[in-house]
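Changelog-adjacent note: as of this version, every example in the card shows the full chain rather than a window. The one below runs 135 residues end to end.
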Amino acid sequence: MDRKWQYAYIVIPLVIVLGAIYVLRGGPGGDEPRSDECTSAPAAPTDLRATREGGPAGSPVRVRLSWQPPNGGDAATIYVVEAGSTSGASNVGNFVANTPSYETDAPPGKYYVRVRGQNACGSSDPSNEIIVDVP
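Full-length structure tokens:
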């Protein structure tokens, strides 16, 4: 067999493999994140507010929370609402929201509530904390 054909059997598959790697990595700048990837955790959500809609005594009270999305960092993909019985605590529960609002029926009590934005790169600092009193 001619020596140049021996090289062709080695070089052609190597070029195909290297070309495929180049394409899969996105060509020039392939180390840069794709548009669906994050580069940082979101900033903290702002302006957390609560409204209550109560029923007659003894019936559940509907609590609606709303906030402004983070204004910095990468976008939040979910929000985690933290509720606690004291400031900074989350012993009552953590609740996931896909939009900058959340509503639920709440039993009587005093709740300290804040929200964090999250994405694949991490979690934000907490928003402002509010107190929700449910009679």
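Structural remarks: The CA atoms of residues 76 and 118 lie 5 Å apart.
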